[in-house]
Amino acid sequence: MPDRIATTVDGRPLALSNLEKVLWPATGFTKGEALHYYALAAPVLLPHLRRRPASFVRFPDGVEGERFYIKHPPPGLPDWAPTVEVSGKDGSRRQVVVDDVPTLMALANLGALELHVPQWTADGGPDAHDLLVVDLDPGPGAGLLECCRVACLVREALAEDGLECWVKTSGSKGLHLYAPLVPAPGRLVSGYAKAVAQRLEADHPALVLSRMARHLRPGKVFVDWSQNASAKTTAAPYTLRARRTPTVSTPVTWEEVAHCTRPEQLAFTPSQVLARVERDGDPFASLTDPARARPLPGTR
């Protein structure tokens, strides 16, 4: 493969470079393979990125080199890539919205390979969250199997309040749960998520933790409700992760979660994810359907 290719993606000129560069040394996975993955995953990835101001983990020299978590457009991003103005406590800044395949490929070409987005869109703004997200993070002595147990408990708790729930792997050791909402203020979404976590901790104290203190985490799963803060972002569905080996934050079915007996059953490589999508479609496809959104409990 040539090390530099001048091409056009949906009418946008791109010069793709260093395609043979190994970014995941443990497996020899190259930048060219990462770009190939994103090109094929774009139809299922982009619906979960569109209009959401994106942040990135950038690792141009591979996962064993220096990495940067950035919210601003990376240097070298083409002028045609769409950006939006985002206001925060420290003032306003421009951020990229990954609305199309050319932008996705341009970012990947610049080493911005891990994609994170907030629970709100640029159109609604930070005070109109259209997603509730729960991050299940196992402490020492716990793992993915414990996360699966807790995920089912969270799903039941949300269902009792009229919310439908989708689940994906984090691409690391935990799970992420999503519930689509009629847009609501972030502080209310965070408050509700915290109350659910506290309720589950009270009912299952040996397994569930709602508090952030690390000394409490051994053997338990932290139900991280704080991901719903307007300033927080979560790894996007189908993003590559900057782990030792190339893993993907992968949407899965509740049947897979309920029947998981080994962590390897819910660990997926890029090629496995593409095969799953080709065979079964996107388990998260209906998450973006506005008809599935429900009012946040207590705001009806």
From TrEMBL:
Ranges that cross the membrane: none
InterPro entries hit by this protein: LigD_pol_dom (IPR014145), MtLigD_Pol-like (IPR033649), NHEJ_LigD (IPR052171)
Any Pfam family: LigD_Prim-Pol
Alphabetical keyword list: Ligase
Residue ranges, annotated region (Disordered): 281-300
Molecular functions (GO terms): ligase activity
Every DNA ligase D polymerase domain range: 30-284
Protein name: ATP-dependent DNA ligase
